Amino acid sequence: MALEAIRYRRGSLQILNQLLLPAELRYESVPGVERAWRAIADMEVRGAPAIALVGCLSLAVELAGGSEAPAGGSEAPAEDAAALEAFVERRLRYLLTARPTAVNLAREAQRLLAFIRRRLQTPGVTAQGLRESILEHIEGLLEQDREVNRRIGGHGAGHILCHLPEGASVTILTHCNTGTLATAGYGTALGIVRALHARGRLRRVLCTETRPCNQGGRLTAAELLHDGVPATLIADGAAAAAMRHRGVQAVVVGADRVAANGDTANKIGTYQLAVVAQYHGVPFYVAAPSSSCDLETASGGDIPIEERSRRELTHLQGVRLAPEGIDVWNPAFDVTPHELITGGIVTEWGVFAPGELRRALAERAALAGGQQ
After folding, report:
1. Beta strand 264-267 with 257-259: parallel, antiparallel or unpaired?
2. Structural domains in the chain?
3. CA–CA–CA angle 266, 15, 294 (5° rounding)
4. pTM of the predicted protein model
5. Would you state the torsion angle of the CA atoms of residues 113, 118, 121, 122, taken in this order, to the nearest 10 degrees?
6. CB-hemisphere CA count at 13 Å for 268?
7. How far is CA 349 from CA 46, 144, 148, 163, 191, in A?
8. Mean pLDDT in each 10-residue stretch from start to end of the chain (372 residues)?
9. Looking at the annotation, which residues are catalytic?
10. Residue 207: count of CB within 10 angstroms of its CB
C-alpha cells in the first residue's frame, strides 16, 4: 500500500506531517481551515494538488460540523443559503493566503464558488441542501485527482516510450516530490514513473535531494523505497554528471503553476535541470494537471515566487550549518522558460508542446462546457 498524504472521512481530516519524514510517520488532525492554513504554510503538507485538496477538505470538515470541527466564529451558517455562500468564500480567501505560487487551490476555489452560484439559482434551494451539495462536490475531488494522475502517468509513459527502441527500459531523472505525498494518490511526475514501472519499462529513477528542505531526499526517496520502485538518490549538483554518465533518457518534473505561454514554476533547481537537459539532448517533461495551468498569467515572469525562511538553509533540525550573519536568498521555486520544455507538458488530456497548450486547454474546456 502506498503512503497516504491525506486521510478523510466526512467530518474528519488527517494529514501526514511531511516535515517529520522519513524519521517519523505521524498523522495530524486538521479540524478546520485555520489548522489547514498553518499546515500548508509550514509545509506539513505540500505539492500543489495536495494543498488544494487539504484546503477544500478542511472547509468540508467545518461544513460537516463533525466532532473535530472548531467551535466559535468559524461555524457555518445553518439556515441561510446566501450566508453560507459568503462563509465559504470568506474561508477560501483566507486559505489562499497560505502559499502564493501554486495555483491549484485558487482554481478549485473558483470552481467551488461557481458551483455554489449555480446551485443558488436552483428554485427552492435550502441552506441544508446547499451544504450537502458542497460537501459532495469537495469529497469528489479526491477520486478526481487520483484519476487525473493515472491519466497523466499513462500519457507521459507512452510518450517517452514511443521515442525509444521497442522493449527498451528507461532511466528517469526527477526533482522534488510529485507522488502520492503531493497528491490524493499515484502522483504527477511520479505517476509517469509508476506507469513505466508497471509496464516493466523502468530501469531506474534518479531523484535529486532537492534543496531547500530536501523534499526529494526525504519524501521521494522514502516513497519510492516504500513502493519498491528502483531508485537512486543523487545530490542536486550531480544532475549534469548523471545525465552524462548514468544514461538518463528523460527528465520528468512537476509544476505548481503553468503560465499561458508554457513557462512553468516548480521547486527551485528545476530551471537548471532544464538547461542541463538541453545541453545533453535529454527530453525535459513537465507533468501537471490542467488545474495547475493558469491561462490568466501570461508568462513565468508574472508568477509570484514564494521565498522561504533563511533557517531552511542555515540550519538542519535545529543545528546551525552556516555561519552567523551570512546573507541568504531562499526562493522556494524558479521558472523554467517554455523553450526548454523539449519533451512536452503532460496533462490528463495528453502531452502538448508548450506553444500548443493554451489552444488545447481552451478546446477541452469548450468541449466540457458543451457536455454539461
Report:
1. antiparallel
2. 6-145 (1.20.120.420), 153-371 (3.40.50.10470)
3. 30
4. 0.92
5. -120
6. 14
7. 24, 14, 9, 19, 14
8. 87 96 95 97 94 98 72 67 96 95 92 96 92 98 97 98 94 97 97 98 98 92 96 98 97 97 97 98 97 94 94 91 96 97 97 95 76 52
9. 256
10. 27
